[in-house]
C-alpha cells in the first residue's frame, strides 16, 4: 500500500470563538476515526494556546512535542516522527506546550504536518482560530472543519470566518470541499435559553450545520480534573460520527491509497 504525499488527507479544524470546544471536538474526531480502523494523527497547531496533551490526559507521556521538534532543512521523516510521538488510545499526538518552549516556525509546522500525512491515513489538526492557515499552506489548502458557538455573538464571529473559507473553496475549484460546520451549544446559560436553533444558524451562515453538541458536565469535569476524554454522550457521538463520515467520504473521493 503506497501513500500519496500531497497532504490530501489533512483536516484543519478551526473556530472563530475561543473556548467553544474546538480542541475537544477535534480530539473526539481523531479518536473516532482511529476506532474505525483509520491510522490517525492529532496535531496541536493552536500556537496561541496549546496544551492539547493536557486536555486528553497524556501530558506525562514521553515523546516529542512541537517545542522539542527539530526539522532540519524543513523536512521530517513520517514513520520516524510517528514512532516518537506519544499515543492516546491508538492516536498519535503532536501537541504544543508553550510553557515548555518556543512557538514553532511555520516550516517546522509544515514539515510535521507533511510528514504525518505520509505516515497516517488521516491527520486532524487543531488550528485554533486559524492563524496557522495563513502561514502553513498544508493547512490552508486542507479540508476545513469549523466549530461555531450557537449564540448570537458566536455566530456573528463565525460569519466572517466561514465566509473566508468559502471564498477559498471558490478559488480552489472543484477539488476543495466546502467546510464541515459543527454547532456547539454555549456553556453557562440557563437551560433552554441563549442558544440559537441550528436551522436558524444554518440560514444565517449559509451552510449546513451538524449538531447541536450540548454541554456535558461529566466530560467537562473529567477534562478539568486532568482525566482526559473518558466518555461521550449519545448526542455528541452522533455529531462526531457525522463528521467522521464526512472525513471518510473525503478520503474515498481523493483516492489516497492505491
Give a description of the structure:
This protein is an alpha/beta fold and 258 residues long. It has one domain (10-249): P-loop containing nucleotide triphosphate hydrolases (Rossmann fold, 3-Layer(aba) Sandwich). It has helices at residues 22-35, 52-55, 78-84, 106-119, 131-135, 137-140, 152-172, 198-205, 217-224, 234-254, and strands at 10-15, 40-44, 87-88, 91-94, 122-126, 143-149, 180-184, 209-213. An eight-stranded mixed sheet has the order 3-4-2-5-1-6-7-8, with helices on both faces. Helix 7 links the parallel strand 6 and strand 7 (180-184). Helix 3 crosses helix 4 (106-119).
Question: Could you name the key traits of this structure?
Answer:
258 residues; 8-stranded mixed beta sheet; globular; disordered N terminus
Alpha-carbon Rg, integer: 17 Å
What's the number of helices?
10
**Uncertain residue ranges:** 1-6
CATH topology (level 3) name: Rossmann fold
Largest sheet: 8 strands, mixed
* Architecture per CATH nomenclature, i.e. the level-2 architecture: 3-Layer(aba) Sandwich
- The CATH homologous superfamily corresponds to P-loop containing nucleotide triphosphate hydrolases
Order of helices and strands: EHEHHEEHEHHEHEHEHH
CATH classification class = Alpha Beta
The figure for the number of domains is: 1
Biggest sheet, spatial arrangement of strands: 3-4-2-5-1-6-7-8
- The average pLDDT value, as a whole number, equals 90
Give the arrangement of secondary structure elements:
Elements: E1 10-15, H1 22-35, E2 40-44, H2 52-55, H3 78-84, E3 87-88, E4 91-94, H4 106-119, E5 122-126, H5 131-135, H6 137-140, E6 143-149, H7 152-172, E7 180-184, H8 198-205, E8 209-213, H9 217-224, H10 234-254
Parallel strand pairs: 1-5, 1-6, 2-4, 2-5, 6-7, 7-8
Antiparallel strand pairs: 3-4
Amino acid at each position: 500500500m503506497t501513500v500519496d504525499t500531497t497532504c490530501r488527507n489533512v483536516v484543519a479544524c478551526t473556530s472563530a470563538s475561543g473556548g467553544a470546544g474546538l480542541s475537544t471536538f477535534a480530539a473526539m474526531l481523531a479518536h473516532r476515526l482511529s476506532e474505525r480502523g483509520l491510522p490517525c494523527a492529532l496535531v496541536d497547531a493552536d500556537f496561541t494556546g496549546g496544551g492539547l496533551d493536557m486536555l486528553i490526559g497524556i501530558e506525562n507521556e514521553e515523546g516529542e512535542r512541537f517545542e522539542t521538534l527539530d526539522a532540519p532543512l524543513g523536512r521530517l521523516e513520517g514513520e520516524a516522527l510517528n514512532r516518537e510521538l506519544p499515543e492516546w488510545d491508538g492516536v498519535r499526538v503532536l501537541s504544543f506546550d508553550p510553557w515548555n518552549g518556543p512557538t514553532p516556525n511555520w516550516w517546522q509546522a509544515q514539515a510535521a504536518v507533511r510528514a504525518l500525512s505520509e505516515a497516517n491515513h488521516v491527520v486532524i489538526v487543531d488550528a485554533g482560530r486559524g492563524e496557522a492557515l495563513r502561514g502553513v499552506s498544508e493547512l490552508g489548502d486542507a479540508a476545513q472543519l469549523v466549530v461555531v458557538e450557537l449564540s448570537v455573538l458566536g455566530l456573528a464571529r463565525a460569519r466572517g470566518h466561514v465566509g473566508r473559507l468559502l471564498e477559498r473553496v471558490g478559488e480552489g475549484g472543484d477539488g476543495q470541499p466546502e467546510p464541515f460546520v459543527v454547532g456547539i451549544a454555549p456553556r453557562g446559560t440557563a437551560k433552554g435559553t441563549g442558544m440559537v436553533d441550528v436551522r436558524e444558524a444554518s440560514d444565517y451562515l449559509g451552510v449546513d450545520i451538524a449538531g447541536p453538541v450540548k454541554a456535558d458536565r461529566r466530560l467537562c469535569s473529567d477534562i478539568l480534573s486532568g482525566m482526559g476524554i473518558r466518555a461521550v454522550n449519545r448526542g455528541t457521538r452522533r455529531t462526531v460520527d457525522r463528521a467522521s463520515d464526512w472525513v471518510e467520504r473525503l478520503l474515498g473521493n481523493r483516492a489516497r491509497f492505491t
